[in-house]
Design goal:
single chain, 34% helix, 3 domains, four-stranded mixed sheet, 9 strands, Nucleotidyltransferase, domain 5, alpha+beta, elongated, three-stranded antiparallel sheet, 25% strand
Length: 255
């Protein structure tokens, strides 16, 4: 089966609709025809949008060169605004608007507050953004998901580098969800050079079963994926399957 073609980001700025055409003077069985159209969210200009006949280049051309209300085109790089920066003790700083920074902050909000990706498509959030920041156009849940995976990959590579300098202590746990799905989490704990304790989740995944073979193999694969060999301890619940699983991992590390 062929993978689904990724939808263009241009649809964050256009709305699809069907235009019914009344074809007079032709065969009565074919008097009406439906034309696929797209309407700009900023100026209501319309374009043909049949995916089998039309490309999205004309819509991008409209946004970048014609639409007078597109918030990301008319942007003076020298224009700065004052804002409170929470990372600097709510100090008042001057900054430029950056779409990518806003999108990354939106992703961090969704992750930290454990919100669904569809949250950004809610009417309340979009109304808030239209008042708080006119330049920021809330993304679709698809765009948010793609950006999230890109951010995850970068942060994972950075964490690999950070962990390389430390001996880590691992904790792991397994459980069954209300949907009767088995999950396992693997968490790393370490102390940095300033003697501060850190905790990082290395893996959160589905596991075949709670047998020691499945737990041991998954732990082994997780450690191989992270490429870390400086393991100080592995802690788990005091049950027989965990004892066998940890013994299996210990032999693999020492072997």
């Amino acid at each position: 089966m062929k993978p689904c073609k990724k939808e263009s980001d241009v649809w964050e700025h256009f709305e699809k609709y069907d235009l019914v055409l009344d074809l007079k003077g032709v065969d009565r069985t074919k008097r009406k025809e439906v034309e696929k159209r797209a309407k700009c969210k900023y100026c209501n200009a319309t374009y043909a949008s049949d995916t089998k006949k039309n490309e999205t280049s004309n819509m991008w051309e409209h946004l970048n060169k014609q639409c007078l209300h597109y918030p990301y085109r008319h942007k003076d790089k020298n224009t700065r605004t004052l804002a409170f920066d929470a990372s600097k003790g709510n100090a008042l700083v001057s900054r430029n608007f950056n779409k990518n920074d806003c999108l990354d902050a939106c992703i961090r909000m969704v992750v930290r507050d454990e919100l669904p990706f569809s949250f950004v498509e809610g009417e309340g959030f979009r109304e808030f953004c239209s008042v708080a920041c006119l330049q920021f156009n809330p993304p679709s849940h698809r765009t948010l998901g793609r950006r999230f995976l890109e951010m995850y990959t970068k942060m994972k590579e950075k964490l690999k580098v950070d962990l390389h300098s430390h001996r880590i202590c691992l904790t792991t746990d397994t459980w069954i969800s209300v949907q009767n799905v088995n999950y396992m989490v693997l968490t790393a704990h370490f102390v940095d050079f300033d003697y501060k304790m850190h905790k990082r989740i290395l893996n959160f995944c589905v596991i075949d079963s709670h047998k020691w073979e499945s737990i041991g193999k998954l732990l082994e694969n997780c450690l191989i994926d992270w490429g870390h060999e400086k393991i100080l301890t592995i802690t788990a619940d005091n049950v027989a399957v965990n004892t066998k699983a940890i013994e299996y991992v210990r032999k693999k590390i020492n072997g």
